[in-house]
Amino acid sequence: MAAISMTVNGKPVSADVEDRTLLVYFLREHLRLTGTHIGCDTSQCGACVVHVNGRAVKSCTMFAAQADGANVTTIEGLARDGKLHPVQEAFRDNHGLQCGFCTPGMIMTAVDIIRRGRANSRAQIREELEGNICRCTGYHNIVSAIEDAAKRMGGAA
Amino acid sequence: MIPYSFNYHRPKTLAEAAALIAKMPDAKFLAGGQTIIPAMKQRLAQPSALVDIGALKELAFIRVAGDAVVIGAGTRHHDVATSADVARAIPALSELAAMIGDPAVRSMGTLGGSIANNDPAADYPAAVLALNATVRTMKRSIAADDFFTGMFSTALEDGEIVTEVSFPIPQLAAYAKFRNPASRYAMPGVFVAKAADSVRVAATGAASCVFRIREMESALARNFAPEAIADIAVSPEALNSDIHASAEYRAHLLNVMARRAVQAANAR
Q: pLDDT tens digits, residue range B233-246?
């Protein structure tokens, strides 16, 4: 067992978990933060993307113990004071989701893309979305939402 | 999917990591985890323990030292891809790092992990081999030509930790990668580097292990231009044949990628 502590969405959390616990299971099953999804078992789909110390990572491809001491942000941590994050707003306004399963990962990745200044064209956004799969194939509006969000945020998250 | 049980260790120093692994014969190192964790989830790998060296600060650095770029083994692909120093000294290397996996994978994956794993379709081995880099471990230096020994195998001994890779700065270099449309793995990729006294051409994603195309090297040493290698056919005999491409098609792509790499190198 590993005794781990980290900050998740601004709150300190501590737990004893099995060493093999993946970060995504820690978030979903221990913290009940079920917004982070598991869409594949092969590290390809990106539904589980969260931010660890400011970097977008696949939480299904990282052990919870590796995040010991880290600062983690999940989709639940984006809205502030009941107000959606601009990227969430843009996804709603641009109908950037269909079934919604990939959406948490898409949005966490989108925030990261905009923060890194990589939302300068539709082609670049598509390239940056390489690790996020939308099985509804609804990419067109996802790209529009990210383009729109980048404009609203002045290019920086 | 959930891996088999194992014990997780997070040493605070390199020396502690080496001492730990020496005591545990079935343990593996964990760096970025972008290969070993998926393999453990599929239960294709079952280490008794993982020694996490991914967070060791002493392994994460990029240094331009005279005529070489020295990169710590724990440096993430993203940091190599976005380093202004690497982009100035060896732009082909930052371009290659930006083509590995996807952005989230590049946030975690490391140089040392990639070369120690030596996946037949990994990108970094092509750069290490073509740039005639030196791989340094805690106990020795290994020339690129001696490092990659076969499919998923290297000259590393059990418990030996890669600490850094020193890439000599070439005059010209470029990497051309034909990506598998689904997985984005090299299918194949060719790295071409022209140094003052030689040209080296390394191919990945084509055979069981990264290899040099020596006939192209001598032709390019005489004339560093795409047309110099247009007629040099790589034999499909030792190349991979699978659902994605036949050996003959891979041989064809090797020539096309090599020419594209030379063209890109000359266009800088």
A: 999 999 999 999 99
